[in-house]
């Protein structure tokens, strides 16, 4: 099963060097094992654009635009056997954050892809 991990934080922060190194090692291991298919960190919303449909109209707004309460800071895509394994890998990833930046409050959504 394919899963997407979405990292969400109320306050955007950059990982410190120790956390970056721990994440790099974890990613190398997961890629080598064939479980991690893709990953990336996102630039702030001010660097992007928003394409929206509202009131049956399509609009495009370049950043910066109204800030959301929460910010998506990164993602990863894994191929795993089941939700239990996906959650366990999410816990391992978040433990790195707790170990290296314990004051950073964030969440990791673990969501399966819809099978077509």
TrEMBL record:
InterPro entries assigned to the protein according to its UniProt record, in alphabetical order: Dimeric_a/b-barrel (IPR011008), YCII (IPR005545)
Listed Gene3D superfamilies: Dimeric alpha+beta barrel
Alphabetical list of Pfam families matching this protein: YCII (PF03795)
YCII-related domain span: 15-88
Lineage top rank: taxon: Bacteria
Sequence similarity: Belongs to the YciI family.
Protein name: YCII-related domain-containing protein
């Amino acid at each position: 099963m394919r899963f997407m991990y979405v990292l969400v934080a109320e306050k955007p922060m950059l990982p410190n060097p120790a956390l970056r190194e721990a994440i790099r090692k974890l990613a190398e291991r997961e890629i080598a094992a064939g479980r991690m298919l893709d990953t990336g960190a996102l630039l702030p919303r001010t660097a992007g654009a928003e394409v929206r449909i509202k009131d049956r109209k399509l609009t495009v707004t370049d950043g910066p635009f109204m800030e959301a309460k929460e910010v998506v800071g990164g993602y990863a895509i894994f191929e795993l056997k089941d939700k239990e394994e996906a959650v366990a890998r999410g816990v391992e990833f978040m433990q790195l954050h707790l170990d290296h930046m314990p004051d950073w409050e964030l969440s990791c959504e673990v969501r399966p892809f819809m099978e077509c």
